[in-house]
Amino acid sequence: MFKAILLDIDGTLVDSNDAHAHAWVAAFAESGVTVDFARVRRCIGMGGDKLMPEVSGIAEDSPQGRLISQRRGEIFTTEWLPRLRPFRDVNRLVAALNARGVRLVAASSAKKTELRALLDLAGVASMLDGATSSDDAEESKPDPDIIEAALKQAHAGPGEAVMIGDTPYDVEAAARAGVAAIAFRCGGWRDEDLTGAIAIYDGAWDLFARLDESPIW
């Protein structure tokens, strides 16, 4: 049994990956930069510090990058966040994990203010023992900083924890931190993209239905 479970949020607990991609595309467009939606969508799960140069060549800490990043946050919060919904059985899964005594810590590349809203939307904030965001790490996923920060909050070593996420960046970040990973398909990635995960499930509902036979126990 793992001592701690580290939970990604976007695309794992909340159906928000497309919304984030749309917000990025709109923010770039406002600054006169055209980026391909599909390319941006495949980068969701990285932090903005990784995504921006990958899709546009613009550094997040440049004047233009800071403006685009700020507008993305505003667009996401005002236009997309109110439309979002958690995936099915998210609260039942987290409640079941909580009842079994494991420590639960969010490990997300989201900004801290967005993460708080997403956790409330998912209905799981009160069941978590901690939460780490991009504000808690120098480098975002797939670098391991966020995973390592979550381990500290969970008071767990790498071998005592498992990461649940939906992107290759979650799986890679966990591996680089020495943490096992379980992947969900609900974020839109194929099984071959999630290579390295010790198990793959359709989503929270699937893991909840098969929790007793999962690698968690």
Describe this structure in words.
With 217 residues, the protein is of the alpha/beta class. It folds into two domains: 4-15 and 85-213, 3-Layer(aba) Sandwich (Rossmann fold); 17-83. Helix content is 43%, strand content 12%. It contains nine helices and six strands; from the N terminus they run βαααααβαβαβαββα. It has helices at residues 17-30, 37-43, 48-56, 63-80, 90-99, 112-122, 145-154, 168-176, 204-209, and strands at residues 4-7, 103-107, 130-132, 161-165, 180-184, 199-201. It has a six-stranded parallel sheet with strand order 3-2-1-4-5-6, with helices on both faces. Strand 2, helix 6 (112-122) and strand 3 (130-132) form a beta-alpha-beta unit. The longest helix has 18 residues, at 63-80. The model has no long low-confidence stretch (mean pLDDT 97).
The helix tally amounts to 9
And the CATH topology of the largest domain? Rossmann fold
Radius of gyration: 16 Å
Number of domains: 2
Strand content: 5-15%
Mean pLDDT: 97
CATH level-1 class of the largest domain:
Alpha Beta
Q: What structural class do you assign from the helix and strand content?
A: alpha/beta
Strand order of the largest sheet: 3-2-1-4-5-6
User: Strand tally, please?
Assistant: 6
CATH superfamily of the largest domain: HAD superfamily/HAD-like
Distance between the termini: 4 Å
Named at the architecture level, the CATH assignment of the largest domain is: 3-Layer(aba) Sandwich
Profile the largest sheet.
Answer: 6 strands, parallel
Name the helicity range: 40-55%
Give the low-confidence spans: none
Shape: globular
| Series of H and E elements | EHHHHHEHEHEHEEH
